[in-house]
Amino acid sequence: MRRDVAATVLAGLDPVRDRAEELYRDLHAHPELAHQEHRTAAEVARRLQDCGLEVHTGVGGTGVVGVLTNGAGPTVLLRADMDALPVEEATGLPYASTVTVDGTPVMHACGHDVHVTCLLAATELLAGGTAEWAGTLVALFQPAEEVADGARGMVDDGLASLVPRPDVLLGQHVLPMRAGSVGTHPGPTLAAGDSMRITVYGRGAHGSMPQSAVDPVVMASMIVIRLQTIVARELPPDETAVLTVGSIRAGSTSNVIPDRAEIQLNIRTYDEGTRSRILESITRIVGAECQASRSPREPEFELFERFPLTDNDAATTRTLADAFAAHFGDRAGDLGRWAASEDFSDLAAAFDGVPYSYWGFGGTDPERYDRAVREGRTAEDLPANHSPDFAPVLRPTLETGTEALVVAALAWLAREST
């Protein structure tokens, strides 16, 4: 793709930018949880129709897909996710969310409002620049990414029968990187993620009579400590994995030893063999600790919210990297591996393994990011996705995300010069 083609399409960015920022503030102030994205989906469908796309709604529940056919050529699918998180916002922004669902605060703490805004803006620009490209654009707005079943839901609901088979699937995520930057990475880029719920059983008793009990709180505590040795002592140092215990629940008052405890944990891996070894180790450790504690029942294990590995196609990613380098210059670089997880690659299953690539772009205020670097602090010290303080700056974040989608699509769709 030649840079002047993208520049021509992006020449209309100025008027789109103001509308995009207004939309972003509205979406941020009105977040919706997974499978509840009705307001967002309706707004997306309306704007896609205004751009002249053929629109399909209700795909996989609340998913929306727009199709713009512009002559013969490749088909490119661009994807954004729409759902928010059960997080209470602490940004202090004038458009901060005050939404609650059944008493639970809701916030766009992962940047999906950014993703929706950028894809709608990119679609508007591409729809207005059809003289510069040929082929078919598919703009897909996915529900329920945060619970790992939104992409599969759209696939199971017949996505492949609604749209032409894509030649490539493309997606992006705003990250706690310097705003204005973009990064690609070939091969495994985002980790596979598995969540597990473990229930261990004891024998309840009065807090003053521990000899009459089998204490599941102590049992669960020992399990948590031992689980930390899996990555530290059972995997080779060059094999990357993360195991996090995010929740322990047991009992309801101080002087009653309960009869059970629940542990929820999450693992992130880049290799199926590593994943299998970790799951086997969890089962072994939990079983051994239960036996050592004289548990009266076998523990129970439940896997839920499985995210697939995001394994970017090398050739596709090279094409993207070249296009981004031509457009963004030194603001484009290597993303590296992130232990976060996504269900984007599940969409490829609808099309028998179409090649895909998923990249990141920055949302952290450049001055704040640069100051942290000067002070010797790491980027991890800055608010990250899922934080109640996560607040991507509007400029240049929205502009960068919009440009990245347009440049990426045109890497396949741009007309050859005559």
Automatic annotation (TrEMBL):
**Positions that bind Mn(2+) 2:** C110, H112, E146
Q: What is its cofactor?
A: Mn(2+)
Name the domain of life.
Answer: Bacteria
- Where does the Peptidase M20 dimerisation domain start and stop, copy by copy? 195-290
CC cofactor note: The Mn(2+) ion enhances activity.
KW Metal-binding (keyword) present: yes
What are the binding positions for Mn(2+) 1 in this chain? H173
Q: InterPro entries, per this entry? A: Amidohydrolase, Bact_exopeptidase_dim_dom, Peptidase_M20, Peptidase_M20_dimer
The GO biological-process annotations, alphabetized, read as: diaminopimelate biosynthetic process
Q: Name one GO molecular function term.
A: N-acetyldiaminopimelate deacetylase activity
UniProt KW keywords:
Hydrolase, Manganese, Metal-binding
Enumerate the NCBIfam families for this protein: amidohydrolases
PANTHER family in alphabetical order:
METALLOPEPTIDASE, PUTATIVE (AFU_ORTHOLOGUE AFUA_6G09600)-RELATED, PEPTIDASE M20 FAMILY MEMBER
- What name has this protein been given in UniProt? Hippurate hydrolase
User: Which organism's genome codes for this protein?
Assistant: Pseudonocardia ammonioxydans
The beginning of the lineage is: Bacteria, Bacillati, Actinomycetota, Actinomycetes, Pseudonocardiales
